[in-house]
Specification:
The complex is a heterotrimer. Chain A is an all-alpha fold. Chain A has one domain. Chain A is built from 9 helices and no strands. Chain B has helices at 3-24, 28-50, 58-89. In chain B, α1 (3-24) packs antiparallel against α2. The longest helix of chain B has 32 residues, at 58-89. In chain B, 77% of the residues lie in helices and 0% in strands. Chain C is mainly alpha-helical. Chain C has a domain at 270-473. In chain C, 73% of the residues lie in helices and 2% in strands. In chain C, strands 1-2 form a two-stranded antiparallel sheet. The longest helix of chain C has 32 residues, at 149-180. Chain C is globular. The two termini of chain C are 18 Å apart. Classes of the chains: A mainly alpha, B mainly alpha, C mainly alpha. Chains A and C meet through α1, α2, α4 and α7 of A and α1, β1, α4, α5 and α6 of C.
């Protein structure tokens, strides 16, 4: 009964939407024109980066908060007190030496790619998120190759790294608010401020995304 | 039908499939995957419908980037909860009897 | 000033995270006190000089994002901070030092409040989506933190409900952007006319339905009782008192904002939320009357009380309906926070989760029980409480427009509330069974609950100021 209702509802939704989408008048507001006009004042040359970090930078600020929050929730859910770190050691098969060698070779390259993506973001597709994702992938690769242990509970340095990018962003927001509007960059410093925010975010995003994986794999041994 | 509308239609179908999946599937991993399909469908609609006349619009593209990061956060959270439930109960399903 | 209400909780939340597990209590309480002051100052400013606007990044909508504080949002901000501060003090006394629920409690609360405050101020549909997710994930985290299997299962159920809700909302936003090329509600008000294409109707339907799921309006309430009934008491109080109201606030905003020309055309549509609200009042009250666990009783009472909020939709055309709705949100918010806080104290002291286990608490914990009773007075809608004022106004409006059904629902709902409140009180006044022990509880627990309950009653005497604030546009 429930199955039938849900499937019926989903089909109805699709039919209605496809019908309604078919003959749609052109949109009355054309934001891509507004973005193009204001691009020179944004401090970056790539329109998507300009929207992400300048025109709608506030969205991005809150979105980093969401990501950091997810990590904190995973920490807060916690593990069973009975599972000690020692109990999880030595249950895995022997490490593949080929994988380890490959990981050692590839990871420096990945870091290089991340730096390139960060730098490229201002004038072509790229930016902090892409760079952070590559960094996180490097960490995951290292973990899978047994070169990087999973996290138990992050120490103070790690917490600083995790929240640092967000705090830099927040600080820029607070300073700009005191001088005018939230995240309003002075014209000549816009490019530098965006680069500062993006550099901080790259490190923190890489750590957070890696953390989401490394924290989830922390109690690996006892369930498998 | 322009390319944009075609992509948007696919997005609508993906969304409907995803919602049905989240509501109907029992296994938590499948439900989490269904949620991601639902999200992908929405992102497709967001980008494609705005570009149905063939002009690229950076605003929805940036919104989708934001949306993806939010979806990643939600997925990680769901996986962590599912994993925790598995550690505690040995099951990867929510029981039906305590629904009402 | 309004922007600091968003930045401040983000700041203390991330600083509390940096300080480490179980730290940051005082930082948070100082932050919350500052927020309360800001919310009062903002309300005063708005009453004096009208709605305030802040263009983030200096761009202005539709290219940028605008934050607007008008009477409605200022009132919701005020309610949120008024409830959050006493509950934070309560939570500090409630949790034991090594409670696993407290490891990252304060950062989660901070992000939750940032999400709430940002949501109340935003006028950008997509930005609102991000705030909804911030709020939803923080709430799920608070339910799950340090909990056992049942709590985790409740959190998962809550998570799926909230994700489907915001997913439907986001699809609506995508359709709106596709149709008009903007997501600024201010710009959309003038763009969406009575002749809007079908796609906009579907978008509106998706957004409203998604938000109703997040508000736990009947029949989408299935996730609420296990989540609110299973979480630690301070968390239940926060979620029931303010978090569910955020999505109600959004429905209301959309209804009287961008979609106002649609709701005028389709006069039958206004009865849809009212119908669900009516069913919620009856079903929630019925389940509360039957509930065996004290916190489940209170959680089902939330389902019922949320129903009243949706009764205002057919009346929105006339002045005063908005005020009645917000007054009900205040009354329920303060009373429910007090009730969950009192229940937490009772459960902590007696070690009993069942209503039946409350025998004898009238003698041992009079302050807490008095707080529970005062909150009950507000829920029933007895004078002089804020609940009375809200219901009085609702009935008056309904009768003046010959919608006697609404007046009837409000009256019967009050009676049903009396039944479940007296069920608890009656049990509490019974003699304690021999051998029952009541562990002493910190005074703070008793008096914060009492303060919230007293506020919910006394607000009725200061209702004029609140109504004046809500009216500012």
């Amino acid at each position: 009964m429930k199955r039938l209702l849900v499937v019926l509802g989903a089909v109805c939704l699709v039919v209605l939407l496809l019908g309604a989408m078919h003959d749609l008048a052109p949109a009355s507001v054309e934001l891509h024109a507004a973005v193009a006009t204001n691009l020179t004042a944004s401090g970056v040359e790539h329109p998507v980066t300009a929207v992400l970090l300048n025109f709608r930078g506030y969205d991005t600020l809150l979105e980093i908060a969401v990501l950091l929050l997810a990590l904190i929730v995973i920490l807060a859910i916690g593990m069973d007190a009975t599972i000690s770190a020692e109990a999880t050691v030595d249950v895995r098969p022997l490490v593949n030496p080929v994988l380890q060698t490959l990981a050692k070779l590839v990871v420096p390259l990945m870091i290089l790619v991340a730096v390139y993506l960060l730098w490229a973001g201002s004038f072509r597709p790229g930016g902090a998120f892409q760079a952070g994702a590559v960094l996180a992938a490097a960490a995951v690769l290292l973990h899978l190759a047994e070169l990087l242990p999973s996290w138990q509970s992050p120490g103070v340095k790690l917490r600083l790294g995790l929240a640092g990018g967000f705090l830099i962003f927040l600080a820029v927001g607070a300073v700009s608010l005191m001088q005018g509007a939230l995240l309003e960059y002075p014209l000549e410093q816009a490019g530098a401020l965006i680069l500062l925010i993006e550099s901080g975010l790259t490190v923190s995003l890489g750590l957070i995304l890696a953390g989401l994986f490394l924290l989830l794999s922390r109690d690996d041994g006892e369930t498998s | 039908m322009t390319g944009g509308l075609l992509f948007a239609s696919v997005g609508v179908i993906l969304f409907a499939m995803g919602v049905a999946g989240v509501l109907l599937l029992g296994h938590l991993l499948r439900r989490i995957l269904a949620f991601n399909i639902m999200g992908s469908g929405t992102f497709l609609v967001l980008v494609a419908l705005a570009q149905r006349n063939g002009i690229a619009d950076p605003v929805p593209q940036a919104m989708v980037l934001t949306g993806i990061v939010v979806a990643v956060a939600a997925t990680a959270l769901a996986l962590a909860l599912a994993r925790r439930l598995y550690v505690l109960t040995g099951k990867l399903e929510l029981s039906q009897d305590d629904e009402e | 000033m309004m922007v600091w209400l968003i930045l401040l909780p983000l700041l203390w939340a991330s600083l509390a995270f940096m300080l480490g597990p179980s730290r940051g209590v005082w930082l948070s309480i100082v932050g919350l006190a500052a927020q309360l002051w800001l919310a009062f100052a903002l309300a005063a400013e708005i009453v004096g000089s009208g709605a305030a606007m802040h263009a983030v990044g200096g761009w202005g909508a539709p290219l940028g994002i605008d934050l607007v504080a008008d009477g409605l949002s200022a009132a919701m901000l005020l309610l949120t901070q008024c409830i959050a501060l006493p509950l934070a003090v309560y939570a500090h006394a409630y949790f034991k030092r090594d409670d696993p629920a407290t490891t990252y409690f304060w950062p989660l609360v901070g992000f939750l409040l940032a999400g709430l405050n940002a949501l109340f101020l935003s006028t950008d549909l997509f930005n609102i989506y991000v705030t909804l997710e911030l709020l939803g994930l923080a709430a799920v985290g608070l339910v799950a933190a340090g909990g056992g299997a049942q709590q985790i299962a409740a959190a998962l159920r809550y998570l799926f409900a909230t994700l489907v809700g915001s997913g439907a909302y986001l699809l609506g936003v995508a359709l709106i952007y596709g149709t008009y090329g903007t997501v600024s509600t201010v710009t959309l008000v003038s763009l969406i006319g009575a002749d809007a294409p079908d796609l906009v109707w579907i978008a509106g339907g998706l957004m409203v339905l998604g938000l109703m799921l997040k508000t736990a309006l009947f029949p989408f309430h299935f996730w609420l009782p296990p989540a609110h009934g299973g979480a630690p008491a301070p968390v239940s109080a926060l979620l029931s008192a303010v978090v569910v109201k955020a999505s109600f606030y959004l429905v209301l905003r959309l209804w009287i904002g961008p979609f106002s020309s649609l709701t005028v055309v389709a006069s039958l549509v206004v009865w849809f939320p009212a119908l669900l609200g009516t069913l919620a009042v009856f079903w929630g009250s019925y389940q509360a009357i039957r509930a065996e666990r004290l916190k489940m009783l209170i959680a089902y009472s939330t389902v019922a009380q949320l129903g009243y909020l949706f009764l205002i939709f057919p009346l929105l055309a006339s002045a005063g309906a908005l005020q009645a709705g917000i007054m009900q949100a205040f009354a329920h918010g303060l009373a429910k926070a007090a009730m969950f806080a009192a229940a937490g104290t009772l459960i902590k002291a007696t070690g009993q989760e069942m209503v039946a286990g409350l025998a004898g608490v009238a003698e041992r914990l009079p302050v807490t029980l008095f707080a529970f009773g005062l909150a009950g007075i507000t829920l029933m809608g007895l004078p002089p409480s804020a609940g009375f004022l809200a219901k009085w106004q609702l009935i008056e409006l309904a009768l003046s427009q010959q919608h006697w059904v609404i007046a009837f629902v409000v009256l019967v709902g009050g009676l049903l509330a009396a039944v479940y409140v007296f069920r608890v009180l009656r049990q509490a006044f019974l003699l304690a069974p021999a051998g029952s022990v009541v562990t002493p509880v910190p005074r703070t627990l008793e008096w914060t609950a009492f303060g919230l309950a007293a506020a919910s009653v006394l607000l009725g005497l200061r209702g004029v100021e609140l109504m004046q604030l809500v009216g500012v546009t």
